[in-house]
Amino acid sequence: MNPLKHVAIIMDGNGRWGLKYKNSRNEGHRAGLKTVEKIIKQSIKNKIKFLTLYAFSTENWKRPKKEVEFLFTLLENFLESKIDDLNKKNIRLKIIGTKNFTKKINKLIKLSEKKTYNNKRLQINLALNYGSKSEIINAFKLIKKENKNINIKTLDKYLQTKDIPDPDILIRTGNTKRLSNFLLWQIAYTEIFFEKKLWPAFNEVDYNKIIKNYKRIKRNFGNI
Ligand code: IPE
Ligand code: IPE
Ligand code: MG
Q1: Low-confidence ranges of the chain (pLDDT < 50)
Q2: What single-letter DSSP state applies at residue 146?
Q3: pTM to 2 decimals?
Q4: Quick check: 29 and 198 in contact, CB under 8 A?
Q5: Which end of the chain has fewer CB atoms within 10 angstroms, the N or the C?
Q6: Which residue from 209, 224, 184, 196 is spatially nearest to 58, judged by alpha carbons?
Q7: How far is the CA of 185 from the centre of ligand 1 (A)?
Q8: Distance between terminal CA atoms of the chain?
Q9: 116 Cβ inside 6 Å of ligand 1
Q10: HSE on the CB side for 14, CA within 13 Å?
Q11: pLDDT at 1
Q12: Would you say 125 and 50 are in contact if contact means Cβ atoms under 8 Å apart?
């Protein structure tokens, strides 16, 4: 049975779910947050140590201003109302991506990261304004500036995911088979699961099924 340390998720399909059931994309985002809570709980039950959630990509700024604003209001409310609870549950929150949001959100993020910094049960990496291509470019810029040798180890160390093992599982919900600029370097040997269900409809049973299937896969890493 394969060990499982790190699950990464592209939480896609909120907008379509919202339009279908509530006549509003934003209501889909709100419903998506409930799935996030379910998956956090289930990750702890499965003794997973790292959960990386793609919440907002560098490309998502192209969306209508109203939707972007709604997403950040949801984030703000989530952090304000849940961070103490996450902290009590011994969960660490780390943001990956470029942190250039409003002053209020930047402050809230900093505080949340600081508060939960020493927590050990589960680390949630929330990918916000995250794009894998810029992450890699920024890493190379820093390596060049510090005049370090370019090799796999150095690049690993200069990415925002340093100190985090590569994902064992990548899940993308929402019935689309693409990576949308997520963790391109880190998923070189990750087991990928494309899930038809939209993110708000995804649940513990679906998640556990994926985990069960993953555990049985023969992972070769080039070997036989
Ligand atoms: C993913 O759901 C959440 C974000 C990108 C913030 P979408 O909003 O992309 O939902 P669909 O793909 O349009 O249904
Ligand atoms: C990927 O979903 C980003 C997140 C889930 C945050 P998108 O809905 O933005 O992806 P594309 O644009 O359809 O590839
Ligand atoms: Mg989408």
Answers
A1: none
A2: T
A3: 0.98
A4: no
A5: C
A6: 184
A7: 23
A8: 16
A9: no
A10: 21
A11: 94
A12: yes
What is the best residue among 53, 72, 128, 180 to mutate for testing ligand 2's pocket, by most ligand atoms within 8 Å of CB?
180
The pLDDT assigned to 62 comes to 98
**Ligand nearest to the CA of residue 126, numbered in listed order:** 2
Calculate the alpha carbon distances from 12 to 121, 163, 196 in Å.
26, 26, 10
Tell which phi-psi region holds residue 133, choosing left (phi > 0), alpha (psi between -120 and 50) or beta.
alpha
pLDDT in tens, 124-151: 999 999 999 999 999 999 999 999 999 9
> Are 184 and 133 contacting, i.e. CB atoms less than 8 angstroms apart?
yes
Determine if ligand 1 sits within 6 Å of the CB of residue 71. yes
CA of 118 relative to ligand 1 center, distance in Å = 32
Tell me if 50 sits within 8 A of 38, measured CB to CB.
no
Say if residue 22 is exposed, middle or buried (CB neighbours under 10 Å; 0-12, 13-18, 19+): middle
> Mind listing the domains of the chain with CATH numbers?
6-131+166-216 (3.40.1180.10)
Nearest CA residue ID for atom 2, ligand 2: 12
| Binding site membership of 180 for ligand 2 (Cβ less than 6 Å) | yes
| pLDDT score, position 45 | 98
Pairing assessment for the beta strands 50-57 and 6-10 based on DSSP bridges: parallel
| Residue range 151-190, pLDDT digits in tens | 999 999 999 999 999 999 999 999 999 999 999 999 999 9
Positions marked catalytic: 12, 60
